[in-house]
Amino acid sequence: MTSPPPPRSRPGSRRLTRVAALTAAACLLVAGCSGGGAAGERADSADKAGAGRLRIAMITHGGKGDAFWDRVRKGAETAAAKDRVELTYAADPDAAGQAELVRDAIRDKVDGIAVTLAKPRAMRGPIGEARAAGIPVVGFNSGISDWRSAGLLEYFGQDESLAGRAVGDKLDSLKARHALCVIHERSNVALEARCAGVKKAFDGETEMLYVDGTDMAAVSGAVTAALRGDPGIDEVVMMGAQFALAAVESVKEAGSSARVATFDLNHELVAAVRSGDVQFAVDQQPYLQGYLAVDSLWLYRTNGNVSGGGVAPVLTGPAFVTRTNVAAVAGFAADGTR
Predict the structure, then answer these.
(1) Bridge-partner residues for 235, per DSSP?
(2) What is the mean pLDDT of the chain?
């Protein structure tokens, strides 16, 4: 398949917002590629890259106000600036809305799409449409078990099941007995895999609690109620930094002796780990995920490169951040890159 010719001057799609547009003057020589795409497609892409006209869309399931996605976006923008491409970013936590954003990017005739697969079934249709239009699509952050069957070129992220099992093992080492694993987005495959991994590895009891992550007051209230209802809960495992900070307050409100652990971190969470309010965080490196997703599309369109050979994911985590090593990442977290 050949990619569509670059548009001359047309407005951006109704829902995508351009965040970077830089030009380049270098000509690039394209190598062969075993990951798919005809030589004509790659040559055309190289010409467009030389003119500074590669256009990449990043489309996530991130919710409004979730700072996690700020770090993903920052990594993506850094890669876009380095590669001198035009980047658009859009997000919708609703699966149908996210799918429509992908279709917007296809209609806008972008040169590549980076997408999350929190709800893989909903994304299969638009991913297939992108491929039919000659647009390469890579996955990141969510969907490590589904990216190949969905037809994605590459994948960058954390093996969430493995990360969950690592947390379960760590809880055993900390002598925990009863964990409350809190999922703030029902049916999100990444969050479900995390708690399933915890339950599989943890020798104690693992109890699931589903909350509405778009309502922080509701999250805090639900965790407080669960702790009051069962004083035997001695560990609260959250799925994100801002939720972990809310859980710290819930523990105090409930008068519980439970400890808080979490997946993901930010600047405020680093301070909580330092103070001991949060035992540890599992870092999947969202900045790196955003960076690699954009950079991989540029490399594919200009040099035919496919990370992992198109058959293996590129892992960005898990890594534990504890009180003993938190100082090593504190500066990066303050800059919004960890």
Answers:
(1) 179, 259
(2) 88
Task: Give the tokens for residue 47.
Answer: 């010409």
The pair of three-digit structure tokens given for residue 322, joined into one six-digit string: 């504890």
Q: Which residue has the tokens 């001359």?
A: 8
Name 229's Cβ contacts closer than 8 Å, sequence gap at least 6.
none
How far apart, in whole angstroms, are the C-alpha atoms of residue 1 and residue 334?
45
Distance CA 171, CA 259 (A): 10
The two beta strands, 112-115 and 205-210, are unpaired
- R_g of the chain, CA atoms, integer Å: 21
- pLDDT, tens digit, for every residue of 192-236? 999 999 999 999 999 999 999 999 999 999 999 999 999 999 999
The amino acid that residue 53 corresponds to is R
Identify whether the C-beta of residue 322 lies closer than 8 Å to the C-beta of residue 279.
yes
Tell me which residue of 239, 162, 169, 176 sits closest to 202, measured CA to CA. 169
- CA-to-CA distance for 176 and 90, rounded, in angstroms? 40
* Omega before residue 318 within 30° of 0, cis: yes
Report the C-alpha gap between 73 and 77 in whole angstroms: 6
Q: Which two tokens stand for residue 268?
A: 């405020």
- Residue 98 token pair: 């996210």
Place of tokens 């917007």: 104
Phi, psi of 289 (to 5 degrees): -60, -45
Q: Read off the pLDDT of residues 42-74 as tens digits, 9 standing for 90 and up.
A: 445 444 444 557 999 999 999 887 889 999 999
Query: Over the chain, what HEC string results?
Result: CCCCCCCCCCCCCCCCEEEECCCCCCCCCCCCCCCCCCHHHHHHHHHHHHCCCCEEEEEECCCCCCCHHHHHHHHHHHHHHHHCCEEEEEECCCHHHHHHHHHHHHHCCCCEEEECCCCHHHHHHHHHHHHHCCCCEEEECCCCCCCCCCCCCCEEEECHHHHHHHHHHHHHHCCCCEEEEEECCCCCHHHHHHHHHHHHHCCCEEEEEECCCCCHHHHHHHHHHHHHHCCCCCEEEECCHHHHHHHHHHHHHHCCCCEEEEECCCHHHHHHHHHCCCCEEEECCHHHHHHHHHHHHHHHHHHCCCHHHHCCCEEEECEEEECCCCHHHHHHHHCCCC
